[in-house]
Fold DUF3097 domain-containing protein.
Amino acid sequence: MRQYSPDLTPPWKKPKPVPEVPAEPGLVVEEPGTGFCGAVIRCEAGTVTLEDRFGKHRVFPMEPRGFMVEGRVVTLVRPPSGPARPSRTASGSVAVPGARARVARAGRIYVEGRHDAELVEKVWGDDLRVEGVVVEYLEGVDDLPSIVADFDPGPDARLGILVDHLVPGTKEWRIAESVTSEHALVVGHPYIDIWEAVKPSAVGIEAWPRVPHGQDWKKGVCRALGWPDNTGAVWQAILKRVGSYKDLEPELLGRVEELIDFVTAPGD
């Protein structure tokens, strides 16, 4: 007969239980033994494959208490089997399965640069296609008043503009104030560049570094963080880490939603 053996380990010496977290694709985790931080891209046969911000892959065993998520020790587990149809889009809107893109509206949303346009497409693309809204990018806003005049917005062709670093007293603020059409809406976020609207945790850093005034912001960020000086490649790596609206700062989220609502509002 098997004898009972009591557990005499003092409570304070027992390891505390940690949460089990499904290794869903896109989840950003850190392997503390190596310091490798990356997004989950594959989970199979007791291992998980991570991809860091430079596209490097590493495979790790899914051991108990083997990873950290947002600074907390966790145990990664395989996600539930069987792909489920997403019920929401990347922007958080209710998904419309099988919805076809609407014929493009006359109205438009303008953003300052290519990176801005790519980020808006990544998160709001499904919504924009359903609504028939086209996003175009500008090369800066110095000529914004004449650009708005050339577009000639009206009740059935509204124009929304998203501006970087729209802070009272700045050049961008003064230019935005000069747009007076009731059928054009200029909004913006406080960040110097759209990169900064991505939450630091999404790209595996504690915070976006401060870049001295007068220096190129993107290149200054890359130097401060030890990233390659190819800002185009770095941006693509950042963009890959954005899975949904949860990876973006609310100061950007609210402004893009405001523009979509404005452009899609019924004509007067």
Notes: Residues 108-264 form one domain. Residues 91 and 245 are 5 Å apart (CA to CA).
